[in-house]
């Protein structure tokens, strides 16, 4: 098994600038856009306003003739004013939905800012509807409100809501937690099968009848760095979470797999045989895509909670230099292995005061800024190259075969500026 040295002291103990002010982020409802693709027998019913419905339609790009697996139960003025029984109204909406879509096996009631403001108890509604329409249908609830969260926390809240309902098992098994595109999940399965790591449970499972179980023999590997609530929920069920760098790039993927190989007693020779070829492909692909990135500076505005693993990948594998790494929430336990690999130097910030952070950004003028959609166009108008943070969540970016594509996502805006004559060609 290849051993990776850490030539720098890392940033685990580095000071963190904590900011609390105006934020620029999407709300957690946006997570539905990739979760509904991951679970084809699930339906997401947002209990919210017409604004919530417009947001989801816009984010997903659903055509007028499509049959999406999400919808919004609109809270009208009478609901908001307490003039109607919202629970009875919700029961009627769900009954109409199930009459039209009897194929639904998992129904998520998703809270929004309006439903939380009027204190609508969706947990009670989920329990009642499960009793009415079960056992073929399970109804769960979670909050996708953007009042205090960022958009990736919608996935975290959804998966955490699923954990208490998972059956108990004493079997020693690996559980991989975090939604991955199907093609990436299949690649991961191939690597784990090659290493002989089994049985394997996935959260979320693609279908309700393949739902996983959890217990004291469950070892959990996270593939997304924003699953703090899911991690805590699994630990409450007795599972043990392995801390490792996240599988972004060749190095992160190798270290993630190496942690699992140690846990399950995989021989070093077998590890090398399984990973050598895809590692070599990943290194070649990253090296080619990173030609436009070497020596460039980058800043991350807090958005997706992917910022630290991506900064590690870009600085260690692509030759970039991080100026500031902002993240909505810095979970030191989960991100400790990433901080260990990150060279000292960049400002680490948690939370956001957007005006102060923009002042620092304008003073530093990095070659590339990773930020949300709301800030990208204004920064581009000021002559700063930007990368949309949300694209890094929607795109396949995990594990070896996507490492070159991940580097390419960051190289593209710099190459585009060079073609337009805004920057000298690398």
From TrEMBL:
Protein name, as recorded: Light-independent protochlorophyllide reductase subunit N
Subunit structure: Protochlorophyllide reductase is composed of three subunits; BchL, BchN and BchB. Forms a heterotetramer of two BchB and two BchN subunits.
Pathway membership: Porphyrin-containing compound metabolism; bacteriochlorophyll biosynthesis (light-independent)
Catalytic activity: chlorophyllide a + oxidized 2[4Fe-4S]-[ferredoxin] + 2 ADP + 2 phosphate = protochlorophyllide a + reduced 2[4Fe-4S]-[ferredoxin] + 2 ATP + 2 H2O
Pfam families recorded: Oxidored_nitro
Organism: Limimaricola pyoseonensis
Cofactor needs: [4Fe-4S] cluster
Cofactor binding annotation: Binds 1 [4Fe-4S] cluster per heterodimer. The cluster is bound at the heterodimer interface by residues from both subunits.
The protein's role, per its UniProt record: Component of the dark-operative protochlorophyllide reductase (DPOR) that uses Mg-ATP and reduced ferredoxin to reduce ring D of protochlorophyllide (Pchlide) to form chlorophyllide a (Chlide). This reaction is light-independent. The NB-protein (BchN-BchB) is the catalytic component of the complex.
Domain of life: Bacteria
Enzyme class name: oxidoreductase
Gene: bchN
Domain Nitrogenase/oxidoreductase component: 27-386
EC numbers for this chain: 1.3.7.7
Keywords noted in UniProt: 4Fe-4S, ATP-binding, Bacteriochlorophyll biosynthesis, Chlorophyll biosynthesis, Iron, Iron-sulfur, Metal-binding, Nucleotide-binding, Oxidoreductase, Photosynthesis
PANTHER family assigned to the protein according to its UniProt record, in alphabetical order: LIGHT-INDEPENDENT PROTOCHLOROPHYLLIDE REDUCTASE SUBUNIT N
Family, per entry: Belongs to the BchN/ChlN family.
GO molecular function, one term: oxidoreductase activity, acting on iron-sulfur proteins as donors
InterPro entries: LIPOR_BchN/ChlN, Nase/OxRdtase_comp1, Protochl_reductN
Binding site for [4Fe-4S] cluster: 27, 52, 113
GO terms of biological process kind: light-independent bacteriochlorophyll biosynthetic process; photosynthesis, dark reaction
